[in-house]
Write a structure and sequence with these properties.
Number of helices: 1
Distance between the termini: 66 Å
CATH class: Mainly Beta
Structural class: mainly beta
Keywords: Signal
Order of helices and strands: HEEEEEEE
Helix content: 10-25%
Number of strands: 7
Strand order of the largest sheet: 4-3-6-7
CATH superfamily: SOR catalytic domain
């Protein structure tokens, strides 16, 4: 195979390698339950299977403190976007707003985030 043909084949494959991009949080709600919170989070990502999928989301405070993380155990190729919940998230008194961000197995943390207002 000549070098030019190899280069063309490699460049042609690049869009499919990056097609899924980063995982995006497209919705999030929080409900107080006693001293903790339940988060329902919707994530969108073009999961491609075990090699590239949205594998977690987390609740982050305004100072960057991670309050809790929801690990996602498998790809959601045929379920997009998808919503998963996490209960028992403890948010310190005085924190009235958090961010929710997602991670995928190739790009890590990134993509769109959602701000959640915790004010009563």
């Amino acid at each position: 195979m000549n070098l030019r043909l190899l280069l063309i084949m490699t460049l042609a494959a690049l869009p499919s390698l990056a097609a899924a991009g980063q995982a995006d949080v497209v919705g999030a709600t929080a409900v107080r339950s006693g001293a903790s919170w339940r988060f329902d989070v919707t994530v969108a990502h073009a999961d491609e299977g075990w090699d590239h999928y949205a594998d977690a989301w987390r609740v982050v405070g305004p100072d960057g403190t991670v309050y809790d993380t929801r690990e996602l155990a498998h790809p959601h190729v045929n379920e997009q976007p998808f919503t998963r919940s996490l209960s028992g998230v403890v948010i310190p008194a005085g924190v009235s707003r958090v961010s929710v961000e997602a991670r995928d197995s190739v790009h890590g943390w990134g993509g769109a985030t959602v701000e959640v207002d915790l004010a009563p």
